[in-house]
Amino acid sequence: MSKSQKAEIDAILRQPRPQPRNVEEMRAGYATAQTRMPVPDGIRTSETALGDRRALIVEPIGPAHPGTILYFHGGAWSLGSPETALALTAALVTRTGMRALSVDYRLAPEHPYPAAIDDGTNAYQALLESGADPAGIALAGDSAGGSLAVTTTLRARESGLAAPAAVVAFSGSFDLTLSGDSMDAKAGIDPIFTREMLGPIGGMYRAGHDARDPLLSPAVSADLTGFPALLLQAGTNEVLLDDSVRLATRAIAAGVDAVLDITSDVPHVFQSFAGILDEADQALDRAALFLAQRLR
Prior knowledge:
- With 296 residues, the protein is an alpha/beta fold.
- Helices cover 39% and strands 17% of the residues.
- It has 10 helices and 8 strands.
- An 8-stranded mixed beta sheet has the order 1-2-4-3-5-6-7-8, sandwiched between helices.
- Helix 9 links the parallel strand 7 and strand 8.
- The longest helix is centred in the last third of the chain and has 17 residues.
- The protein is globular and about 50 Å long.
């Protein structure tokens, strides 16, 4: 464990940046920042379609292990693409030997809630219709993508689809009411987010819908009965920490096989710093073990 690594990353994240004037500038800045993350060797990419959305296939070079990871990128439901999440997706692929399909879901504000969940559910249904065994599928994602991994699973249940074997979320956003204690307790400690920042961002996606809707705030109101095995990873230096804590509590109360994996003194989606931060590599190793144990 390296205090110097943590301090270096915290300092990087706190560096002043030009304030974007519109969503297009936000997207360009996010893409530039995310594509600087190191992508591990040993993978190849290609494109396919799931439902009516593009998906990036990320698979190991050489024989693949059984199992499929359906991945949802982060970006507050309004930024990002499969390419901006490639470092994380590839890290899971190289560690598990499984292929991943990363969904290019529609973004807010042009396509607010429930467009992204519709796209996720259609992608999952298309994967099932292609012959994939749900017992060999995991849904995973980071930040807003972690939320989509959870809410797509809930929507799939509503639609009568077979449940995937597992769900993994890195620093998921599970409460658009912003009511978690960590919103205040981690103010200033979080080098990225504040409550004041997250309100408008979530509002672009929510588009006037009740923030307590289970598909917007599953940590507040979702019925997780029958939910698949769940891994939630988060860091203690993020205002969204209690989103994962409270979702895990709801899952456990509903009898779900849930693992809450908290790493100290690391920021939002710290797993993106694999190869730079020891704790990021260790967390991804644990996520890979979780998937290997639950997918067949």
